[in-house]
Fold each of these.
Amino acid sequence: MCGIVGLIQKQKKVEKGLFETMVSTLSRRGPDQQGKYLAGNVALGQTRLSIVDLSENGKQPMFNEDGSIAIVFNGEIYNFQKVKKGLKRKHVWNSVSDTESIVHGYEEYGQNIVKHLDGMFAFGIYDQYKNIITLGRDRFGKKPIYYYLDENSFCFASELKAIVSNPNIKRKLILNYSAIEKFVFYGYIPSPETIYKNVYKLEAATTLQFDIDNWKLINKKRYWDLGQIAIVDDLNEVEIIDKVDRLLDSSVRKRLMSDVPLGLFLSGGIDSSLIAHYMAKHTSNICTYTVSYKDTPSADESKYVKQVVNKYDLDYHLCEFSGKDVQSTFLEIMDYLDEPLADAAVVPLFFVAKQAKKDMTVVLSGDGGDEIFGGYEKYKAQYLIEKTKFLKPLASLLSKTSVSPNIKKLLAGYQYEFSERQFLFGSGSFLREEAEQLLSKELSMMEIFSDAHLAESQFKQDDLLNKALYLDCRLQLPDWYLVKGDRTCMAASVEMRNPFLDTKLAEFVFGLGGNWKIKGGITKYLTKKLAERFYSRDFIYRPKKGFGVPLDKWIKKELKETFSHYLHQKNDMFNQKYVNKLYREHMDNTCNNQFKLLRIFAVNYWLSKHG
């Protein structure tokens, strides 16, 4: 795992000292080695976290035989041996690194090399003969890549901080107010936009080229899309669960590829517990890491974790997260994120990643299981509203009565389009009228959710539940949950791998109707039926808690001064009277506004540091 950066100047050589500064901003992503290539107006750099091929031969930038093609690469390619064997031409191999398979694969397949890769990746390839830079990102967007272009410079990097560290670029950056408006609803900024108008994220499953001679971006292509998969209905339940069993087993096994120790983030939930089963099947001496909230027993699920640990005799690390840890960890990870992100789980995840780093460099995680197999209650709400649209007038009337906040939000959902509801539900989002009060302006939902509407238009099935899952895989995963996992782990110099986000597994499950994912009101029906083969029903069918972050308590106690300071920081974005109202309601226990306050805090904190 690594950090990558590239800088191309139109009319002058890249300054060595400037480029070294840009590379050094990514040192947490790769503390083991640094590599740089400077040739006139082109510079490529990498910081390396050594995992496969620990020798100097795995160092980057890496080149083909004659030095005409160079790559900087972040990620892991699990099938690199297969890619290597599939190449038709003879190549000279100088390492056992997965990186070299991309270099030689590009020589044969060009931009289409991504279609042959199984893994998580973001890369930049410089083709000296064509004078072209090729960028590529993996199918789910597990690994990030940003890019910037003006009349003098083209730059790409794993993280925004590397681009911003270039003063020639920084002074030209323009704050993206429309992206902040989207953030209020989503809790993140959806690709390709960023917090800056003139910096972009390359979308998941996408490649893009930069033509240096003509100084323009060309050939942007989306090369994979779950929304194009047709539903297959000729399998029975046993056959389906058997295949999920085989695919998940294979997914975990390939993600054990490493020349350094591996571990597991074990939450006690179904997803990470299934991964524990398959890891124990294929390897030994597994270290597991679990967050325990010392000051909040109600959020502690360590007793369920112990059942898994005892069953497979796993090495158990209980990482107790106290109020003191909240204060010391919160702003450190907020500073590292680069862009606002409204997810309090980054705090304990960063904490546990730092604990894991003491023993190992690679951890597996259960992330993605909910989006692939249907684990969120909002999927039920989407189906209910779509099937009862005739109740819209009644819903509008009932929403004005005294009902619980959750029911109120469900009723309000009838006024929104499917793709809008998908991101209003389940994330603590503001509703339209609330956001208009916060921003003191009228908002167009079509503009705010243009990314969601575009994704929905590209979904070709008629299955409502699969459409909800697809939207989350297109937007929520790459721009929120996978960002959370990547930044928190990379800030601790740890690589996270996600077996549930395996290409073959996802393609198979998206070829099944939604009735297989939520059945009889049971979410994640297939993974729960699979888990019955290994765990007790009491363990499987207990109420879902998620990561259980006690943000409500933190705002009132451990982070009270921090939140109060930044929530009351005036700026041009928010209506301060409305912010004060939300804050008073929360502190007086009249309304739980924790998720809304976190969104406001994230923006205000970012503006105080970068605005």
Amino acid sequence: MKLKPVSLALLSLGLPALAMAQTTNNQLEEVEVQAREQGSYSSNAVQVGTFRDTAPIDVPLTVNSVTREVLDAQSATTLFGALRNTAGVTRSQLNGSTYDNIAIRGILVENRGNYRLNGSLPIINLVDVPLENKQQVEVLKGASSLYYGFIPPSGVVNLVTKRAGNKPVLSLSQSVNEHGGATTHLDWGRKFGDNNSQGLRVNLVKGSEDIGVNNYSGERELASIAYDWKITDRLSFRFDVEHYEKSVSEQAAIRLLPAVNGRVTLPPVPDNKTNLAGEWQQYDANAQNYLARVDYVLSDSWGVLFEAGYAETTRDRAFSRFQDYDLNTGEGQLQIFYSRDQQFDNTNYRGEIYGEVVTGPITHNLSFGYTTNTRASNTPGVTGTQSLFNQNLYNPREIAPQNVTFTGAYSAVTIDDQGLYVFDRMQLNEQWQVLAGLRRGDYRTEDLRVAADGTRTVRLYNAQETTPSAAVVYKPRQDVSLYASYVEGLEESGQAPATSANAFQLLDPAESEQVEVGAKFNVGQNSLAQIAYFDIERASTFEDPTTSVFGLNGKANYSGFEMAWTGELNKQLSLAASALLMDAELQNDGNPATVGRVPENTAEKTASLFAEYRLISVPGLSFSGGLYYTGERAVNDQNQAFIGGYTVASLGARYSTVIGSTPTQFQLVIDNPTNKNYYSTAGNDLIGVGTPRTIKAIVSVDL
């Protein structure tokens, strides 16, 4: 296991660490992140955007939190495994054998801007982000440009790391699955120093990977540290570092056949163990993330914070797609696209001053901030003509390993996104709040392409825009919140996929608008119910079937209702439920092929239900079950075919006991217990198949 990032983090322990943050009423109080109380499916605070350390009921947008207890109950180790518990989440383009490409409400979650670590650092979701060192996974649905700049209005996925609490932690777990995959996880946490002013949480993971498909193998690992130091009553510091990598065989995707008379015929769903690629076709990627934060209390009412972070991901890839096949015989061709030494990095800084001002009867909770983010990517050595092999969908052949000579062609893209913002939560009285924010953004891109013959082309783009946000919140009582919000945003609108004629080209930024009206209820001691109506308008993209050029295609509208319930119904029963009912439509009158159609890979209906029941008669024993429904989805913007809707189940059982003096937990989890075959994803002219049944057993001990 490579522990270099951990060694660097240990050297940093001579620096200051831990953070002070705002509470939900913006008073300056110490916030301590601890391990969640056993049994809680609900979160009492979110850590994303301008709503950091705010109770979910006070956030005038749809926000879903998947807590550590839900992750443990489901033994979830991937982003999609966590986010399937929230409405509107689907896979996009890829089936998840390497990493989770995700869409929310039909809008792609951009892999380099929409995934955040501890509400701040944009990490790069091009390798499976591990969950073993995360306390909860949050989704702030919709537009979030005020705080995060140029990102799509799908939502921000925030990963909150575990931290040392007052109770020491030392746990060791071992999991195995029926396919031969196995993972070992060590979790250690302590507070130390004068008055326990410092805290350290370490997570180490090492495992072999097997998801049950043919020609698939690999391994993954994680090493992470979260360090906190309360230096004085006013000054605190927090530092996170994580290194993770994954090297696995990448399952082949299936390309759509050309349309005949305006319709695409889909092949029958293959057996879920089918893999048309060779086991040697490795997806080899690793990531390093570093994030530091300093908080300083200026007075009883004002404070400042500074954050600095860096994320880097590198990967090699031999991606393949099966195409030009005969539906009767299954004969077709496997095309392989090779890339080596791709590098992506994000550098992020934020400074913010926040506090409280009273003007007459109105209390203003103010934030003034500046953020700058630089994203760079380098894709060297991409071959022009890719390898082609004869392959059969129904009777796959072995694909022999290839020696590939790379050309001198490469692309390099740099994105610089800076912004000044102000946010004001105005408390008019006990019932009414008005929230208003403004961001002035400066966005610049440089897109350099160098052909194999040395020909260079450079595309530059520069935009300065001011985007507002506003919301009104009415609380007739403390456990009920009614709200209406309006948010404008700017997004990078898309990057041409590797298979397009203008591969990797960044499209011009585009505007988005979102209106949301909703209600939230704190139910009982530990449950949150939400219902919201949303309306999002944004730019749409389209790959011309004639030229294979990927570009903008007018507007798309997404509107509908979203509902969720998370928490405990009583001491025995916990619940996480969600549903989405939506209308989505492309609105470019200039393109008759797509106007009025549903955007590709957009499920207008989704639902999830997961429940766990703890037996009174047998203390420590619980049973769980889940159902996850995704409606039909168009395979392209012309709606020339749809992959069918499906429901996948999960089952589980946990038993906690004490053996000798050692707390021990035994767990069994079964995903897709019926071994259903189904198309799990569409988009970018591709479709993918869901994974086979997986039985997993886990043993955990607290030492």
